[in-house]
Amino acid sequence: MEDISKAVERKDHRLKMSGRAEYTCDKRLAGMLYSAFVRSEIAHGRILDIKLPDLPEGYVAVGGHDVYDNHLPVVTDEQPIFAVDEVCFVGEAILLLAGPDLETVRRLCRETKVTYEELPAVLTLDEATEMAAHYHYRKGDVEAAFAQAAQVVEETFTTGYQEQAYLEVQGMVAQWDAENGKMHIFGSLQAPYYVKNAVMRVLGLDEGHVRVVQQVTGGGFGGKEDYPSLIACQAAAAAKKAGAPVRVAYDRREDMTVTTKRHPSRLHYVATLDAQHRIIALKADICLDAGAYPGLSSVVLQRSLNVAAGVYKIEHLDVDGRAVITHTVPNGAFRGFGGPQSIFAMESLMNHLAAKVGMTPLAFRQMHVVQQGDDTVTGGKFHQYVPIPDLLAKAEEMSAYSRKYAAYSQSQTGRYRRGIGLSLFLHGCGFTGSAEKDILHARVILRKYADDTVEILASNVDIGQGLKTTFSKIVAAVLNLPLERITCPNPDTDRVPDSGPTVASRSLMIVGKLVERAARKLKAGWESGKEQEAVADYEAPELIPWDMDKFSGDAYPAYSWGVNVVELEEDRLTGMTKLLGVWGVFDVGKVIDNTVMLGQAEGGMLQGIGYGSMEKMEAAAGKIRQNSFTDYMIPTAMDTVPNQIAFIDNYYADGPFGAKGAGELTLLGGAPAYTAAVEQATGKAYPNIPLTPERILAAEAK
Fold this sequence. Notes:
The chain has 702 residues and is of the alpha+beta class. 27% of the residues lie in helices and 24% in strands.
């Protein structure tokens, strides 16, 4: 393997293409029961009474009184496994019913009558007063900078829900081994040990009596980080009570109605410019809608604040962030994890400021971009080379951005008008702050067998992003072994150590480095024909210590960087847009597999453009209205054009073969680049996404 970037056949390619891959809904266990939920029909209220129909023999009902601890452990534990006294959003689970026939179970759920005392519901950000999380940081002297201002610009941006739209819906199978007092969980998930720890706590079991096995998982995008813990606990409670395996499998409408989404947000920015048009101070007030329970909102909010100023050097900052509670579906992890909201707002603000001072968007940005050695917004450092000039040069070469921007800035007549938009962005790789060192303590084991094959034992999962392939390539390259002699099984917590969850663009950079280190240990002591094992534990790099109370220090060990360009044509009559070109240039360190990384880039950019353009989701009286792919639009191959993508090498010493995090980065620039292109085509400013044809026409009518 002379070049680790060269594409190889993916480890799971033949399994999936042959149809032999076993997903959660394919799992069949003897005597397995099927389940459905009795869910809240109101946004907020007290449960006064529940009347169950007569349950036939072999059917069970499970609720909050059937578990040892009725609290879901995430960052905090406010969310109940089953609502007992109070319901806080439409769709909250009250009971799970299980039995041998699914249609009968569903009928019994419909016949269950819940009596409520309806309570006032908080349904919007404007109404919300209760905070799930709050952070604040300051840098420099904002008041003094504002006192010297030549110009002050104030603007508010909003973003909506986004549905993860993974191919495979949420699902879990639980099996209770009464003889050994052990719970076995099989499911579609991103974090096996999150699920294990939740089931241990909720059922009151110790570590040796819960086992979690990841099934082949059809996509996650963050939607299977925390949510599978909830349904695993529900399935496990039912399996234990029934004394039989229980499967929980959502249909698409249920999945879209009750599972976590990207947080809707409102971001208020006030920028101060000096006489040379440079931003000297920035105030940002960021508010995220957590939904009914805090969940992961505090961590999502941290990411939003860490990129509040985007890729720009601004000496004086005052940034305040809140995640607030509403009586709506809880929101959680989604690719980008709070970054897309802030990047959209900051990139749009840069466009609008450039227009106010009579500069091109690119020239205005180039005045402000950070460089190696500059401070981050939280007083850390950009320790490694910042390759924005290289990314921009490549983007210009590929897209002819500046030439087209100048051409489209001329007066355009007729029904169709063109625009081109640019976005710059960054993503912090790994968990925020000191979590990798202080909380996760990741470990990886490589096990060599007597036939000299090597097995990778880690809890990180392949959810379609190619992790089995990239991990295997790292080991094969270090040991100089054929790829087919490396195996990387789906994690089983009885066999693999806790290497942390598959989130936060950490799997390749953080855990992949452990895989590389373990492989080098194994190589150093290699004895052919003998069983051997090599272990690697996480070692934190030397950084500026993170202080969560002060929200200061190095938030991340490294950053990945990107540039997106979107060119489109807008129809003045309908407000519809047609993509003409999409370009992406990324720094992800060393690319471990070109085909895998191209898939990440193409999917991420299209997901970002969908977020900015068509993925409209709203709640009415607290209930999600768009709960199927009939009325929730996501972009397909018919809605885009062939993407042109390039990567630059920017070696990162603490990543495997120099690699950094990649998956989340690729989504961040799509929405702001798309919006900028529409703004040039129409001559209007659009501070709200998704930017649907209706919104475009409404702005043009003013």
